[in-house]
Design a protein that fits this description.
This protein is mainly alpha-helical. 76% of the residues lie in helices and 0% in strands. It has one domain. The chain has two helices and no strands. The longest helix is centred in the last third of the chain and has 23 residues.
Length: 41
């Protein structure tokens, strides 16, 4: 069985604590998203 992508690996590794890890992932990446959006506009 081959994983389809990085997100599949991420989800597989964090099934036991998905909510906490997803929140940390969002906290880490939302500021980067906001910065890139501000750069575009």
């Amino acid at each position: 069985m081959q994983p389809k992508g990085i997100f599949d690996i991420f989800l597989t590794k964090t099934k036991d604590s998905t909510r906490r890890n997803r929140n940390e992932y969002i906290k880490a990446n939302v500021p980067l998203l906001v910065e890139s959006i501000n750069e575009v506009y």
